[in-house]
Amino acid sequence: MGTVTSGHLIRGKEIPLVGPHHQVMEEHSKRRTNYATSELVDLILGGAALVAQAFPESKLPVANAARPGGGNLPWSISHNSGRDIDLVFYLVDESGASVVPRTMAPLAPPDGTLFTDGRTLRFDPRRTWILVNHFLESKTPEVQYIFMADFLIELMFQYARSQGIANARLKALRPRLRQPRGTLPHDDHMHMRIRCSPEDLLEGCRDIVNGREIVPEFDSSYQRRVQRLLLLYKKAQTPQERAPLAEMLGLLKARKARGILIESLSSCEEPLCLASLRALKAMEVTPSASTLVAVIGGTENLDTAKEALRLLRGCSSGETREVLKLLAVERTLTHERASFEETLNVREQACFVLGQMGKRTRSTFKPLVALLRSADPKVSAAALWAIRVLAAAPVFGDLGEDDFDGLWKRFKSWYAVNRNRTTTFSATLRALGHDVTRHLSQKGDARVLVPLILEEDYLSINAQLALQDLIGHRVPVDVFDKLSTHWLIRKEWKSWRRHH
Ligand SMILES: [Zn+2]
């Protein structure tokens, strides 16, 4: 289910730690990472058995696949949904006997040697070729790619040519069999990934091709599946019956369902309301701010309010007036978790949304400044945060609550000369010693702005907004995961720089 980097494994199949033709290596056997989709398990065990037909006593060394339920592994970015596996190469010792090492170790060019435990082990191109060839010939499942170091691929191809395999055929394998760019050489293991099976596609499994998630919108069985779910949804009478259908439509990223899901938000009956919000988020569909604000203002369910607030951050700054309505009422939701009570203060969260929406007008500032007097310290802190972000300057940092009229007066005179966000921000940056132009519109400005994404929130958000103006990419403003935002925007900036 889902993608290899964010998905899960449902009803995964276990790879036995030891089998007739394979062995999970000692180090990896303690990790419980020997689970994968049934298609992948069958493929590797079948490959290992085929090798053993030609080379009896062969054991394929297996490293990480996935955890029983999938999810993140500390050793890899992918491997989340049971469609990735790390295999160690077949090795031989000086006498030519097959050896399974205890753990992964890099093989040295040019002929793939490894010194371990006082022995010299060597890459075995014969068995590796039979295995890799078997994998790449498989139709179901289809192997998306196998990563291994170029010099090892070349050793394997030399052997294949000696067996009469035509060069053209070997070349045809190369797009799927390669050393990936920008990572360490795969000289200690090969990484194989299979594509979603046709059945799994209908349950929400998703391939990533060229960095983009693929939704099989034009596949007729996918379309039939979505149609059927929509029909079931319409026939269902209660929110209890509809909720799992909404969830499934979200997993399938069935954007056709967005109309009925948004419609369900107006009455916001649980558990459908929460399921619809999650499904819309999965589809990357943002309902109107007024719909979301009504949900947040009405629901008693903390998770529903949280999900709606998350979606609200994606609304355009033109809808800021709707969000301001959330500042008018004091509202706190609570939820008993296993070991603590979680609370959500709607005003506090609305301040965080307003800061990220970035609309800098007096009608936004006025209620925020008023909230600085709030008796709840969390609310006044959030209001101050939003003001700093919107002002794009560290102003009003040390104002007491006693002199409110004076504060508002000082604010008005500050606002009269600092209405333009960009020029205020560039002044802030110059005061901090950065060499930037007044309108932040030059290539050199982008170079200064990119590292600021990792800085404090008011610098980070304004740098992100300025970069959006400058390079025109479509990454949403996000300070909850600055590292990912920085990575995405840096990539955009690099390609923009090449063209300017
Ligand atoms: Zn891997």
Label this structure with key terms.
500 residues; 3 domains; 4-stranded mixed β-sheet; 4-stranded antiparallel β-sheet; binds zinc ion
Folded structure, characterized:
- The chain folds into three domains: 13-201, Muramoyl-pentapeptide Carboxypeptidase, domain 2, CATH 3.30.1380.10; 320-415, no CATH class; 420-500, no CATH class.
- It has 21 helices and 16 strands.
- It has helices spanning 26-29, 38-54, 125-137, 150-162, 167-173, 198-201, 220-235, 239-251, 258-267, 272-282, 289-298, 302-312, 320-324, 346-357, 362-371, 377-391, 404-417, 421-431, 443-452, 457-471, 482-499, and strands at 13-14, 22-24, 35-36, 60-62, 84-87, 91-92, 98-99, 113-116, 119-123, 143-147, 177-178, 190-194, 208-209, 212-213, 332-336, 341-345.
- The strands form six sheets. Strands 5-12-10-11 form a four-stranded mixed beta sheet, with helices on one face.
- Strand 15 (332-336) and strand 16 form a beta hairpin.
- Helix 9 (258-267) packs antiparallel against helix 10.
- The longest helix is centred in the C-terminal third of the chain and has 18 residues, at 482-499.
- The protein starts with 12 loop residues before the first strand and ends with a helix.
- Zinc ion binds next to strand 5.
